[in-house]
Amino acid sequence: MKEQLEKIELAAKAELEKISDAKELDDLRIKYLGKKGELTAILKQMASLSAEERPVIGQLANKIRADIEEAISARGSELKAALAEKKLKEERLDVTLPGKLQTIGKLHPLNAVMNEIEEIFLGMGFDIAEGPEVEYDYYNFEALNIPADHPARDTQDTFYITDNILLRTQTSSVQIHVMENKKPPIRVISPGRVFRSDAVDATHLPLFHQIEGLVVDKGITMANLVGTLDMLMKRLYGEDCKIRLRPHHFPFTEPSAEVDVLCFNCGGKGCSMCKNEGYVELLGAGMVHPKVLANCGIDPNEYSGFAFGLGLERVVMRKYGINDLRLLYENDLRFLDQF
Amino acid sequence: MNLSMKWLSDYVTIDEPIKKFCYDMTMTGSKVEGYEVEGDYITNTVVGKILKIEKHPDADKLVVCQVNVGDKDIQIVTAATNVFEGALVPVALDGSTLAGGIKIKKGKLRGVVSEGMFCSVAELGVTTHDFPYAIEDGILIIEEDCKPGDDIHDALGLNDTSVEFEITSNRADCLSVIGLAREVAATFNLPLNVKEPEYKGIDEDITKTLNVTIENTDLCHRYIGGLVKNVKIGPSPRWLRERLRASGVRPINNLVDITNYVMLEYGQPMHAFDVRYIEGGKIVVRNAKAGETITTLDGSERELSEEMLVIADAKKPVAVAGVMGGEYSGIMDDTVDVIFESACFDGASVRRTAKKLGMRTDASSRFEKGLDASGCMPALLRAFELCEILGCGEPVNTIIDCDYSDKTPVTVDFDPDWINSFLGTDISTSDMVAYLEKVGFEIKDNVIYSPSFRIDIESKADIAEEVARFYGYNNIVGTNLTGVANAKRTPAQKLNHTLENACVALGLNQIATFSFVSPKCYDKICLPVNSALRNYVTITNPLGEDTSSMRTTVIPSMCEVLARNYNLRNPACGLFELATEYIPTEEGKLPLEPIRLVLGMYGNGCDFFSIKGAMEEIFKALGINEYDVEAANNDNSFDEVSAFHPGRVAVAKIGDKPIAIFGELHPDVLENYDIGTRAYVAKLLVTDLLNIEIPEKLYKPLPKYPASTRDISFICDDEIPVASLEKVIKKAVGATLENVKLFDVYKGSQIETGKKSVSFSIVMRSHDGTLTDEQADGAIKRVTKALVAMGAEVR
């Protein structure tokens, strides 16, 4: 009986070698270890053994059973691993094939940059104010120290709706609304559309966007204006960005300045982008004119403030190297998809 | 304003490189736009003297000239007919360049060597106005004081540099050589040399010839009349012509040139009348009378109106004050006695008049900025001086001066501490005084007296600017703002951002369209003739009719962009915009400007349900779960329903309020826009959403017990919308309902016409325990009963 058992073990292990899949392995397990299996059949004969032999053979049978089980299990693992490896091999992909289309949309470059600028100002403590695009003459001109028949009106060709209603030519109009409705301290930007009667070409459109800034409080200085614009430009264009202020004239600020930034293209050496000046004009700014404060019921002897106006299109064009303003409003998908 | 550097040197001796000059002037507030070195395009061109002219052996129309060009003689072949032996002519030598980039090389003309070219005025980039003795179509025969071999720039005076300044509207005083010279002197700390004009004059009583009255002293603050007798009209001398040319003004004749010269030099517009045409020897400055007309110097007849100020003689207007003179009273070749006008008119009045007559002149653009009345007299005297220098007339020593101007100087308290606290600087008082004094301010007892020509000075802030620009704007060290900064976006701004993010996540690209549209667009979207949306805000002076209407609906803007992309052959598009509509209110009041979200798409297999799906996701992103969608029609939605396919358009409602419309564009609209494929558009009333209470999002516990799912199929009338079937099911299942999902709608064979087969999957779940089969089946029985009650037949 001992020999029989050893024979079974040898046979099982030999058969195991030849097995190549899980089904055969299962069949083998049933053949040797199952209820009607060969090992069980032998164990049924145990009763005929002597009391001395029984424990010895029993022990041996158990060991052989355990050996076969272990061998089957090991073989099973081997087979599984081989199968997995084969599958992985078969499933190899050419990873250089193009990705499947998963489109997300894009913000319009104007909105994307507007959002960025808004975030910068929110971080600096500026609220975002809005005002009407169709506006009274008073808010667009009169209250900003540009009375009727003032020559400064020439620089802003205006679309009129009636004699005293127009399409705002500057977001500065929102300054007045803000100051009428809120007492200092005031710290706001007002982004939005403005309109001027300019014929369409690569650098002119009858509609564009401005971002106006206004700060009014006790003790606001021109140095604060310089500091604020410097911070804006550094956040927008990086720490290397430098600004330059040039004296200018706006009826609603005094002193007034035009603000240039160091040309990104040439770093100030002079190139075609900056017309050899080393700097490019980006915005207008100044200290709020005392008459404008007074027009809004704010005492210019007690308060001072600064204001600035930034042309969004100019920032966007510079940022992305766009050379034709019209592209921004043509909405060609091939353009929109690039941002 | 173009400044001749030669002219400038009369007043300031400046020796800076031109680039530094321009930069420094810009930084003190006189912005330089650019500069032009006269004749810098001409190279290697000299004066030549024609020694001998012979016929060309092989060409009848050519001659062969021997020309001395200084150190040598050369041969030039020319077709010009106005050359003669002994003439001085400009000679472009071998390898020279001329106006327009023309290059001249040695060559052969019909076999005869030509070593250069004679030049006409045009080839030198000048005109016969600059050289009145020259002819247009021939060689310039030089009548200047020069010799063969002289460089042509020096010989013709093409050696000035003209600097173009952008002068802002507050600084009319800088629209003059002297004004800019003052700024130059202040910028470079140089002395300014302005002399009083000097002239001898003749003794005569002007009042025998002229009488001046100002009727409207509000609009004319000062009028000076001066008389010049026995004028000799002719061309001005070269130096004067050159300066005019460098300033961009065309020389005409000596008398007219003098008025222009004085205007450029002093900034004071001048006018010259021929005494013979001033009827009655009377000048009256008055308002025009109704119906009066004048033929201006440019030859056109102008109708005047009563608010316009004119210069009239005893009978008729002879000039529009500050704008333009009359044709018949101007200087002519046979003029003998001349009246010079040097006056000061109200800026706003001149501006209105010039605008109304549609003629902005050099004079009017100066007057309208406001001029200094005390500048009238020096200008007249300078004109007298020039008459004598040019020898073209005898000024009469008596002058008529009607002066109503206010001579009180503008004063501002001098407060150095305030200036420093305003600028954020630490400038010494002595520096401030120096900055102010060099541009003409006087400071006595802490009071600043503004010079009369600085009409822009009103307040302390103006003084701060004067100090700042000479201290240097860029020497002001930036400081950060201090104080409480508590900024946040408004709910409307947050809403816009939520929508932007949702649309981008849906794969839609944002667009930007104009706020104004063509009035025809309302027809293009087939809007009913009586639609309120056809009542729009109109721009009275649009660029063109197609940008004259402020849009009352954003849908045409989107259609336009879809059409453009379709025509650009972009195969598929998904677009969105947060756009403003302009809805008129009362007359004389501003329109409403609500924000709309508009979506548009075509291609890529999209259909009605794509745009509906997008809208559903957007509602979800907004946290709006309670809304109804129904087929849109004229009664339940928007006027723009006309733009949509009548069977494929829906309206979304929150409560009773239509909040969005979406669907497929009507075939007629597609045709109107030339869109050759089905396209889908949606519009959501964003601004209106702000008035709708959206519940806060709250966490719902995740289910602990399994769900039971039952499918149900039934046949019902085709007319019954799926949404109402869904409602019935929801109601019948009750509290345990988790989800009802449509998974099939079938019409066709085996289904009776007018009916449809509909299948729903119903998911039920309880949070208290696992649903039993009895509970689930009971719910389905209730559903079946309810559906049967609607006439459905459950399969």
Please write the string of helix (H) and strand (E) elements of chain A.
HHHHHEEHEHEEHEEEHEHHH
Mean pLDDT of chain A: 90
Work out the helix count of chain B: 20
Form type of chain B: elongated
The strands making up the biggest β-sheet of chain B line up spatially as 27-31-32-36-35-34-33
Let me know the largest β-sheet of chain A. Answer: 7 strands, mixed
Q: What's the name of the CATH homologous superfamily of the largest domain in chain B? A: Bira Bifunctional Protein, Domain 2
CATH structural architecture of the largest domain in chain B: 2-Layer Sandwich
Instruction: Supply Rg of chain A.
Output: 42 Å
Globally, the shape of chain A reads rod-shaped
The structural class of chain B is alpha+beta
Number of strands of chain B: 40
Largest sheet of chain B: 7 strands, mixed
Tell me, rounded to a whole number, the average pLDDT of chain B: 93
Do you know the CATH architecture of the largest domain in chain A?
Answer: 2-Layer Sandwich
What count of structural domains of chain B? 6
- Share of residues in helices of chain A: 40-55%
First and last CA, distance of chain A: 84 Å
Question: What is the CATH domain class of the largest domain in chain B?
Answer: Alpha Beta
Question: How would you describe this structure to a colleague?
Answer:
By secondary structure, chain A is of the alpha+beta class. Chain A has helices at 2-18, 22-33, 38-44, 53-90, 109-123, 137-140, 172-181, 222-237, 290-295, 312-320, 327-330, 333-336; strands at 127-128, 134-136, 165-167, 186-195, 207-217, 243-250, 253-262, 279-288, 304-311. Chain A folds into two domains: 2-90; 109-336, Bira Bifunctional Protein, Domain 2 (BirA Bifunctional Protein, domain 2), CATH 3.30.930. The two termini of chain A are 84 Å apart. The mean pLDDT of chain A is 90. Chain B is 25% helix and 27% strand. In chain B, a hairpin with a 2-residue loop joins strand 3 and strand 4 (59-68). Chain B contains 20 helices and 40 strands. Chain B has 795 residues and is α+β, with helices and mostly antiparallel strands. The radius of gyration of chain B is 41 Å and the shape is elongated. Chain B has a seven-stranded mixed sheet with strand order 27-31-32-36-35-34-33, with helices on both faces. In chain B, strands 3, 4, 5, 6, 7 and 10 form a six-stranded antiparallel sheet that branches. Chain B has a five-stranded mixed sheet with strand order 12-15-18-19-20. Classes of the chains: A alpha+beta (339), B alpha+beta (795). At the A-B interface, helix 5, strand 1, strand 2, strand 4 and strand 5 of A face helix 7, helix 10, helix 12, helix 13 and strand 27 of B.
